[in-house]
Amino acid sequence: MFTGLIEETGKIIDITKKTASIEITIRGKKVIEKAQIGDSIAVNGVCLTVTKLKGSDFTADVMFETIERSGLKRAKAGDIVNLEKSLTLTTFLGGHLVMGDVDCEAKILSITDKGIAKVYEFQLDENYRNNMKYIVEKGRVTIDGASLTVIDVNDEAGIFSVSLIPHTIENITVGMKKTGDFVNIETDLFGKYVEKILKFDSSENEEKNLKKSNLTMEFLQKNGF
User: Could you list the residue ranges that cross the membrane (predicted)?
Assistant: First the structure.
């Protein structure tokens, strides 16, 4: 689990592409301090497990599901990435609870100056537009591992916006990107739990109503329903 507050940016040193996975080696400084094999480090918001350590470099394996949903499928040696080590019970939680499980990618549609800030407009991948239900105005969304506040949403078009101050732009990879580039998106976990609970409550109520009316699935099927 993470906070969405980027500790540093690192560089991809090497990528080995296999049949259904990737082995990736990244160079960092802060996230490597006191790191051990088996620790979790978020790379552009993707939770990866350290499998090797050497100096300031760490290596991790990326499975097929993660490759499909995230921008790591386009990653190459030399790319700069956001890094955050998993939180502890004493970590200052300045962002929000981030799992490091990327839902999908989004494309940068526009970057607009607004006072000292820049407004970034994103559109979710068409195959994952259902995730818009978890993105709400003034709520939190994780973009390439950074916890950011949503300022505007267009559910039908799958579009949302965030506003970044100069300090944020200078310290995360989104500030290095341009219109047309892609970013990793993780939506708020709590919305997913609420949806699941409501779904089960709805199913249970429907079942109770059927019992009260003496209707059964067997009766409906026999009578052509």
Answer: none
How is 66-122 classified by DSSP, letter by letter? HHHHSGGGG--TT-EEEEEEPP-TTS---S--B-----EEEEEEEEEEETTEEEEEE
Backbone angles phi, psi at 98, to 5 degrees: -115, 130
pLDDT at 90: 78
What is the domain count for the chain?
A: 2
Residue 93 in any domain: the answer is no
Question: pTM for the whole thing?
Answer: 0.86
Q: Is 48 within a domain?
A: yes
Pairing of strands 159-164, 40-43: unpaired
b/e per residue, 95-133, with b = 16+ CB within 10 A?
bbbbebbbbbbbbbeebeeeeebbbbbbbbbeebbebbe
CB-CB contact of 85 with 32 (8 Å) = no
Within-domain flag for 217:
yes
Range of the domain at 44: 8-85
Q: Got the DSSP string for 25-62?
A: EEE-STTTTT--TT-EEEETTEEEEEEEEETTEEEEEE
Residue spans of the chain under pLDDT 70: 201-217, 219-225
Please check whether residue 1 lies inside any domain of the structure.
no
